[in-house]
Amino acid sequence: MSVATIPLQWLIPTSISNGFLFRCPLTLKQLVKDDICSTYFRQLLKVVEIDYNIRDFHLELQQQSSLDLYIYYKDSKEKQGPHRTTVCISCDKTTELFSITLISEQQHTRAWFDGRNRPKLILTPIRHLHRLSEMTDKEFSSFWFDAVTLADREFGDEIWSSMIVNHGVYRTHEHLHLKINFDKRVWQKAVQNWSEERKDKIQEMQQLLEQKDIYEKCFGSKKTNKYGGKI
Ligand SMILES: [Zn+2]
Ligand SMILES: [Zn+2]
Q1: What SUPFAM superfamilies does UniProt report for this protein, alphabetically (predicted)?
Q2: CATH number of the domain residue 27 falls in
Q3: pLDDT digits (tens, 9 = 90+) for 128-147
Q4: 21 part of a folded domain
Q5: By residue range, what is the domain housing residue 75?
Q6: What's the confidence (pLDDT) of residue 220?
């Protein structure tokens, strides 16, 4: 495997109010297709985690014709880290939600509906990992390939609005999650075309989530954070 050379400009962040912004002239899909996505993202994470020594951060991808990668880290003191739960919903196959929220399983990843039924898809590594940088090369390149494939398969060409991976205290779940967010209207339009089987599944998921014990087991207790907002 050849090691791609990543332009230095892609790896020099601009300062923004809550962190950094990296800009890349290619889209995520182009990066994956050209087989340079994992090399680029690995080097970018090295800049953040090693050069700047930032371990707690919110990574957010947004794209129009090119890709913007935001690293938010300056409000880490306000974050409380993952909720305490008795099970890992991304690992424990015995939880009621596991099979209902699971969309597909790949060699290194699982794709899910959001366990709280928000307009997003979730991608997790099969292994119980906490950070992107803990992945092996194979896991890491599969992860981004699978993210693009999943979003395309479910919603068509690059229509996602953002992709988010939280690290350290920015996490709400221990197990690493990639959240692929969609505009509400895009989501609702797609939902109309879902099979009856899938619609039933979502309904079943909603019913399960109304049971307090199941909700708390999977997501922790529904209390408010110190600012009085819902966690
Ligand atoms: Zn896990
Ligand atoms: Zn853990």
Answers
A1: HIT-like (SSF54197)
A2: 3.30.428.10
A3: 999 999 999 999 999 999 99
A4: yes
A5: 1-221
A6: 77
